[in-house]
Amino acid sequence: MNRIKSIVRQLLAVFLYHGYYRWFRDWDCGWNGEPLKEGITAVVSARNEEYILPFCLKSLVGVVDQVVLIDNGSDDGTLQIMKQFKLENEGKLNVDVLEMPGALLGDCRNAGLQHTRHKWHLRWDADMVCRTSGATSMVQIRELIKNDRPRTIQLPRTNLRGDFHHTRHALAMDPGEPILLRFGKDIKYVEHGKFDVIRVPFYYSIVKDSRHFYFHCEGLKSDGNMIYRRQYFEWRELYNSFANENRPEHVSDFSKYQQDWCLREFGTMDSKSLKWRFTRMDCHKLRPVDKELFGEYPDVLLEEMNSSAQHYRIIEKDGKPYIRLDKTDSEMLDYQPTPEDLIWEKENLI
294: which residues sit within 8 A by CB, 6+ positions away? Predict the structure, then answer.
């Protein structure tokens, strides 16, 4: 069945492109009604990503033509970084900064679509960093978009977690998602389970590229941010599993869900104990980066990786990743696990 759908998609894409799109250019307009320009618009939505965001944005310069930045209610320096990036890049590329505190992630991305002024949309996350040199430089995606037909392009991910030198044991690299696609007013983001996914018309063809153009620094966030993200996405999956008229009241209350989650998953409401247990479980699944497999790091990360300023460092015990040190979290710098923490560790990890 999937093979048949793929063939039908390809046929429709070719037929509609030559029989419709090339003649009715109103399809080739943004939400503001103006004709789309050649090039790429990257949409970046972020909440509390002040550490990795500067590297993310710097790596996009020279790769894309417009960046739509959306702050989702950050209480760190994320919004200020966005505004500074806009000021520093006047004349180099178009930068829009939107503030959408409390909005769903899919709604943020849809707002980015409404501000798109170029023919190609790049769904980008604030913790993704492009390679900008070498055989897998992200600049090469500009060759992929010379073909103007409506399609999505899936790009694989190289994942870092914990710090710059570790990755998830099972998912060091994964196939990624269709993050580069021909823009059209018919595409939109919808929530599917716990994640937002992009919905494109059936006639869009699907293309997969095997080159690893970027690193996904998925776990280089504060402990509090990591905990919040897991709570949020698991809550949205539960929330979306009910129809509006049947959804229990306790499921609709995110703050109540957070409290229940802390007790259910880690058996504590104490902030420091929760962070220690969460980080301990996360580190339990890490392994050192295989440099031969991963290849060269993005240029914009090298200076930070070789400096003493980097925020995060995995501490080993008995030759294995044990806990993560976050230099910016003062309440955890001298934290010693309680007897209850050690009992939890023994029951859950050993």
Answer: 158, 167, 172, 173
In whole angstroms, what is the distance from residue 301 CA to residue 293 CA?
Answer: 18
Instruction: Assess whether 92 and 209 both reside in one domain.
Output: yes
- pLDDT category, 167, cuts 50, 70, 90? very high
Residue 329, token pair as written in the block = 């979290």
Q: Tell me the C-alpha distance between 63 and 146, whole Å.
A: 14
What's the mean pLDDT when you consider all of the chain?
A: 91
Whether the pLDDT of residue 347 is over 80: the answer is yes
Of the residues 216, 240, 270, which one is the last residue of a structural domain? Answer: 216
Report phi then psi at 286, rounded to 5: -95, 165
Q: What is the mean pLDDT of residues 25-51?
A: 89
Number of domains within the chain: 2
Task: State which of 188, 216, 244 marks the end of a domain.
Answer: 216
Positions of E strands within the chain = 37-46, 66-71, 94-99, 118-125, 128-130, 151-159, 166-168, 173-182, 188-192, 195-199, 205-208, 214-216, 286-288, 312-317, 320-326
> 279 is in which domain, residue-wise?
223-348
Per-residue model confidence as pLDDT tens digits over 199-209: 888 778 889 99
Q: Which residue's entry shows tokens 């058996």?
A: 267
Report pTM: 0.90
Element (H, E) at 195: strand 195-199
* Count of Cβ atoms closer than 10 Å to residue 204 Cβ: 24
181-196: pLDDT as tens digits: 999 888 899 888 788 8
Burial 63-80 (b: 16+ CB within 10 A, else e): bbbbbbbbbbebebebbe
- CATH of residue 119's domain is 3.90.550.10
State residue 148's pLDDT score: 81
What are the backbone angles phi and psi of residue 181, rounded to the nearest 5°? -150, 155
- Collapsing DSSP to helix, strand or coil, 119 comes out as strand
